[in-house]
Amino acid sequence: MDLLDFEAKDLYFDRPDAPEVEGLIRKAAEDYSSDAELPLLRAYFLAPESLNVLVALNRFYYYQHRLEDALSATYKALEVLRPMIGFPEDWQALQQRHIDEVSPDLLTRVRMYLFTLKAIGFLNMRLHKLDLSQSIFEKLVELDRMDRIGAKGLLELLQQCRAEAVGANSFALVD
Length: 175
What we know:
Elements: H1 19-30, H2 37-46, H3 51-63, H4 67-85, H5 96-100, H6 107-126, H7 130-143, H8 151-174
């Protein structure tokens, strides 16, 4: 299945939240400093399943270099997306047939799930959890043979960095 061959429907940012939640997200965007965290957390407490809120939290924490917090928000987004498309609880159990069986109307959500999984892999790579990152990128490459999600380059980068680190360590042992 070509993950670019679909009509974009049901985009997360087109789904309205309660006016109070939307106002809190706007307030955080206008005050994008450390002061933005409180309105985002209030929005999260009001709408913990809102992808708008979770994406906003992810971006805020990522740009504040709070990668563990960004990772928490991203995992929560994956949890929200998973039941919407009927994917297994454990991403490692995800198979091509799961994607193939999804209704074409849900392909936007499938793409968001896969991009969210890629973000989890990337954040874990930044946090030096390389085995987990590699497993995620390998799963995405397996599921997305046309590399529409773009995990192949990250997997290659990770493998190259690991090879260089092994090479550097072997030279250090010779000295």
